[in-house]
Amino acid sequence: MSSAPAFKPFNLALIQLGQVGTDKDENLRHAREMISRAVTGGSDAHPRPDLVVLPECFNSLYGHLHFPVYAETIGFTPDKPYDIASSESQTVKMLSAAAKEEGVWLLGGSIPERDAGTGKLYNTATVYSPQGELVATHRKVHLFDIDIPGKIKFKASHLFESETLSAGNTLNYFDTGKWHEFARIGLGICYDVRFPELAMTAARQGSCCQVLIYPSAFNTTTGPLHWELLQRARAVDNQVFFSMCSPARDLKQSYHAWGHSMVVDPMGTVIAEAGDEEAIVFAQIDPKVLQDARAGIPVTTQRRFDVYPDVSKRVL
Ligand SMILES: O=C(O)CCC(=O)C(=O)O
Are 33 and 292 in contact (CB under 8 A)? Predict the structure, then answer.
């Protein structure tokens, strides 16, 4: 079991990125520009962010036909230093430089990744320290294959993720250690939010994350139904901060993202939310809200593992 990590107030910025098109260089250029804007765009109401987040699949069009074309080899091994200079990934190099130049923690959304050993493709999130180190990755664990008759069919359509992607098989978090330690942050990607066990394991005794952040890209069918509901549910049932960062909606592309990048506090209150256009959403994360939620509604000490199993028992 991990010891309880530090949790201090910090500022979060979600980039609801627009203009993601066919040109990867242009996608990266625009993302870089928006990272700068997020860092300098604070105000009295929204102080300079400590952590900036990009959405799912931010350097590529979304869909299984695009993943092999845009995929990059990352080659990250947990607990081993990663050499950015010899990375084969153009996107990793850009994100590392951006984090270092801006002096900010960066959860660099997700990108299609090709594993150098197996050749398999993954939907992978990467995280950078303000020194530009690649400190964590998360390969999407649950692939997005759904079929709602008459509404939306990703199964066997050009968007069906498992046509080309493989599922990750590890749970991941990162600590904002060293010179400015503020939280332990659990990772997931989009459809992962539908599986409460993943959030539960990250938030509870396995790792004690206080904040869970999932780069995402819901759509205009399931977005209005479940986007907010799922985030508030994961926040309340684990008494943690929960956030998903979406691309902006672009009706010129075949995939219409829902937008509404959001931050929810441990009581289930939506404390920040975008519309559907390009935007930067700022939120102040206050540990006292988590402490008060857990003190006032002490489900943590009231669970009845003599009646039902503790499914979060696995230690990350
Ligand atoms: O779960 C949903 O409704 C949407 C999931 C999704 O868009 C994704 O995983 O990319």
Answer: no
